[in-house]
Amino acid sequence: xxxxxxxxxxxxxxxxxxxxxxxxxxxxxxxxxxxxxxxxxxxxxxxxxxxxxxxxxxxxxxxxxxxxxxxxxxxxxxxxxxxxxxxxxxxxxxxxxxxxxxxxxxxxxxxxxxxxxxxxxxxxxxxxxxxxxxxxxxxxxxxxxxxxxxxxxxxxxxxxxxxxxxxxxxxxxxxxxxxxxxxxxxxxxxxxxxxxxxxxxxxxxxxxxxxxxxxxxxxxxxxxxxxxxxxxxxxxxxxxxxxxxxxxxxxxxxxxxxxxxxxxxxxxxxxxxxxxxxxxxxxxxxxxxxxxxxxxxxxxxx
Length: 302
Description:
Elements: E1 19-22, H1 32-39, H2 44-52, E2 57-58, E3 61-62, E4 74-77, E5 92-96, E6 100-105, H3 122-129, E7 136-137, E8 146-152, H4 158-166, E9 171-179, E10 188-195, E11 204-206, E12 212-222, E13 225-232, H5 239-246, E14 274-282, E15 289-293
Parallel strand pairs: 8-14
Antiparallel strand pairs: 1-4, 2-3, 5-6, 6-8, 7-8, 9-13, 9-14, 10-11, 10-12, 12-13, 14-15
């Protein structure tokens, strides 16, 4: 296996690897600085400061401010981080060994860095707090959904565990709190086609070949609310939220379905009442049967 090239002297920062930027094979730039000014979405003064402070590295170390442009070369640097509001909830470890880490992720914490959520993500927090710089996610869980998420500790095993999730070899069980409809016949299997267009925040059910399937069961009822057991066999974006909303029983606290409501990122009230409760699979490395259960409880029920 080819060893991944890494810059000299530039380690992780806040649990984040440096960004890698490859130079094109040809170009009109005389210096690396000129190329960075054209390439990076920051002012020229910011590029000059990064170079002056030795924050841009190649394989040998910091790059000089007047370094020539090298066709096909590569440099590494840490991007400026967005301003983030700390998510005031902790991650609890459910299981840890030399191969995998399973945690209970709280509501409002993204799984991996993306967009406005970088440091305040489960991956970055765990890398930093558990001193696991090579940790990687085996799958993802929506920011507003709480519950079990699995990470891979050993980089050599990352592909095997990620493939297990991609090939739908993991049995997932969710819990949701939603209204009860007396005329809704349950249990039932909901099958539909769900699509999510790039740049559109919500997903939609549309006519066409089925690509999303969820078994819906009513586990318990208290007045007008029910505790639902959800067993998805596919993993489309917002699948469970879309399916329950389509049945006329949208999940309590859902700001997307059936009607989109804007909510500030620093509003940690009224979390979506959806919990990733169980992960169950045959370990692709050891062959043993594994089952993990979340210790979290949904506030609308407890």
